[in-house]
Amino acid sequence: RRESFWDPGLPLGGLLRGRKFEAELARVLDLVGVQRIEQCRVPFAAVVHDVLKRRPLALEHGDLAAAIRASCTVPLMFRPLWHAGRLLVDGGVSDRLGRTALRPGERVLVHYLPSRRRWPRRIAVPSVDGFDAEVLVTPDVPALGPFALERAPEAYAVTERFASAWLDESR
Length: 171
Description:
The protein is of the alpha/beta class. It is built from 3 helices and 8 strands, in the order E-H-E-E-H-E-E-E-E-E-H. Helices cover 23% and strands 20% of the residues. Strand 5 and strand 6 form a beta hairpin. The radius of gyration is 17 Å and the shape is globular. It starts with 13 loop residues before the first strand and ends with a helix.
């Protein structure tokens, strides 16, 4: 629901402040009893971009809602987040595939959702050269955006079915 995250303000780096988005994340995470990254059942790291140091960073400890918010802070959509003395935005700015969070010998599953724009700028799967990765491209995902959220349940269902089938085949 748009009202769960829609908190526009003066455009100082982004249309939305991001506070409502983080509050909604915290609410949902509270329902499952997870507030900190260390509490995740599956190891998790949020890859973010440190604006001041101009480099990617993996958040592996601390507040989970803040880490997710920072990793979703798409420039111009959400304002950058001041967190732990750093100015953070979406890690895709400098590390689109999240390589920063990988340890030696780890593999990564890149779940790529192709652009559904009417005129996509490019039709390309991100490069995974240089490390062990599987690329999963989910076709036929309904287009979503801030003004097309009503299709989110359908998009989630399509993506979940496709990813689950792929995981079952790869076992």
